[in-house]
Amino acid sequence: MARPLTATIDLNAILQNYRYAKKLQPTCKAFAVVKSNAYGHGAIEVARHLDNEADAFAVAAIEEAMALREAGIVSPVMLLEGVFEEYEWKLCEQHGFWAAIENTQQLNWLLASQVNIEKIFVKLDSGMRRLGADKAGACDLVKKLRESNQVGDVLLMTHFSCADDLSDIATMEQLTYFERARQEIGTIEASVANSAAIMKWAIPEGGWIRPGIMLYGISPFAGLTGQQLGLAPAMILSSKVISVRSLKKGEKVGYGLSYEAAEDHQLATVAVGYGDGYARHTQSGAPLEVNASPAMLAGRVSMDMITIRFADASQSFEIGQEVVLWGGSVPVENVADYASTIGYELVTRMTTRPRYQYHTVSEIKS
Ligand SMILES: Cc1ncc(COP(=O)(O)O)c(C=O)c1O
C-alpha cells in the first residue's frame, strides 16, 4: 500500500465558515485570509472554491498573491504586510493587488513607481508594536496617499494583540486608539478584526473583516474548539496502522525509551511523524481515534512514525486500521494542547508529504 497519510479537506466547510464570519458582521466585507498556504489547507484549492463568493483574499506576501493569480484566481488580493521591495508595486498595479502600507519607505516607493492602486490600507500600530505607524504617522500616510491621486481608496487598518483573551482590556484600548485616529482623519473605512474579534468583540460597522483561522473551523480561543464556536472544522488528518505488537507492563518504547507501559497493552505504529507536520514535542497521551475508539500517542514522535495505544488496554489493533490524527471527533485544538502550541501552528506547519484530498460533498448549513 502507498503511504496512507492523508489530509482530507472539506472545501464546503471553509465556504460555510466564511459565510458565518460575514453573518456575524453583516455590515462588513470580508477578506478570506489564505496566507501560509491557507493555514496548511492549500491556498489554491481554497481560493478556487471561494473565488466566486469572497469579497477579496488576503496573503502575507506578493509571492503568495502571484501564485493565486497564476492559478486563475480573479478576486482582489491584499498584501497584509505590504511590499518588501519597490518593484512589487508594478506587480500590484498589473495584477490588481491591494496592499497595506505601514512606513514611509513603502509610501515613497509607491510614489516613485507612479502606479495606480485600487485600495491601500494604512496600518496603524494601536498597541501591538509589530507593524504600523503611530497615530500621527498614520494620519500623514493617509494624507499623502490621498494627495497622490494614485490610490482609489485609502482605508485604515490595525491588528489586535489580545483579541483571543476576552478578559484583557488591551483590545478596548486598541479600539479606542484606533477610533481617535479615525476621528482625526475624518471619514475613512476601517479594517480591524481577525477571527477572535469577529466572533467576540464589538468592532466598527462597515469596512473589512479579516477572518483567518475561523475559516478553517479552528478556534482562536484557548479552551474552546472550533466546533464549540459553531465552526465547521475543514481538515481531517488520517493515516493507518502499519505494525502491531504487545507490550508488557514496564516495557519501554521509541527514541529515548520515553514511554513506559503502566500495564499490559497493545502498541500500534502509525505512518505519520514530524516530517509530515505532526509536532515532535507532542506528549504521550495526545488524543487520536482508531475505528471510532479513543486512542492516544504513546512514545516520542519520530520523523515518519508514531506509536499509539488504545485508552482501553483490552482493545487490540490490526494492521491497516484507520487512525484519525486530528479532525472529526479529535479536535486539532486538543492535540495542540499536548504539543504546547495552538491549532494554528499544527495545520500551518503541515508539509507536502501527506496526500491532500479535497471534497465538496458536505452540505453547507446556513
Ligand atoms: C493582519 C492580519 N489580519 C488577519 C489575520 C487573521 O487572523 P486569524 O487567523 O486569527 O483570524 C492575520 C493573521 O495572522 C493577520 O496577520
Automatic annotation (TrEMBL):
What this protein needs as a cofactor is: pyridoxal 5'-phosphate
* Residues that coordinate or bind substrate: R130, M303
Q: Which residues form the active site?
A: K35, Y255
Top EC class for this record? isomerase
Catalyses: L-alanine = D-alanine
Identify a single GO molecular function assigned to this protein: alanine racemase activity
Sequence positions bearing N6-(pyridoxal phosphate)lysine: K35
> Hey, which pathway is this one from?
Amino-acid biosynthesis; D-alanine biosynthesis; D-alanine from L-alanine: step 1/1
Please, which domain of life does this record's source organism belong to? Bacteria
What keyword terms does UniProt attach to this protein? Isomerase, Pyridoxal phosphate
E.C. code: 5.1.1.1
Annotated gene = alr
**What's this protein's function?**
Catalyzes the interconversion of L-alanine and D-alanine. May also act on other amino acids.
| Entry keyword annotation includes Cytoplasm | no
What's this protein's family per the entry?
Answer: Belongs to the alanine racemase family.
Limits of the Alanine racemase C-terminal domain: 234-359
Protein known as: Alanine racemase
